[in-house]
Amino acid sequence: MAEKTHPAAGLDTPLAARARFWPRLTPNPDAFGKATEGFARFMGTPTFLLYMSVFCLFWLAWNTWGPQDLRFDDAAIGFTALTLMLSLQASYAAPLLLLAQNRQADRDKVSVTEDRNRAERNLHDTEYLTRELAALRIALRDVATRDYVRSELRSALEDLLESNDGEEIRLRGKSPKKKKVADATTQLPRVERASAPAEADPDAGSGRGRGRTGG
Asked: Contact, 36 vs 104, CB < 8 A?
């Protein structure tokens, strides 16, 4: 009958967890952390110091001047019960304060990480805007600006005014000659028409004169 052989477990094979005699307590870390932080904050307030001072004074006064039969902490042995109670409170307060500090340190790490990420995003955005502004400035070098357009329009207006003034001067210089020629052309036919009958029939006038004289 063949025996069953189990393969040898290597280093990459995890071992089986051993059974625990006591169950593992796994409280809610958030709820426990909030409770410890609340207690730690309360211990750091003047209210806790006042309550603690009043409690200790009452303890000492009762066990010193109170009825002998009702005293529970003898002053002769140095208030042992009060000392033990304060030691127990301090022993629990120290881990609670450390737990609250650890939670605060974790929150600080998260906030620092978020601040770093935000700073990196702001840096990337700033670099992007810087590159865009540089590209826009380079592109605007070939674009006509307002001052350039104004100067060009002003120079064009001056050239236009100079050309109009030269044309007016040229027209004014030519207009008197044209007027004189036109006057001469209009006056010459009138002179010819007035002098033509007298030159064409010179004897008619003399015959009329003679007839008048003869008559």
From this structure: no
Contacts of 119-126 spanning 24+ positions with Cβ under 8 A: none
- Residue 45 φ/ψ, nearest 5 degrees: -105, 155
CA distance 135 to 143: 13
Q: Which residue has the higher pLDDT, 181 or 170?
A: 170
Residue showing tokens 């104004």: 150
68 is written with which tokens?
A: 């002998």
Which tokens belong to 109? 């790490």
The answer to whether the beta carbons of residues 33 and 103 sit under 8 Å apart is yes
116-142 pLDDT, tens digit per residue, is: 999 999 999 999 999 999 988 888 777
CA distance 122 to 128: 10
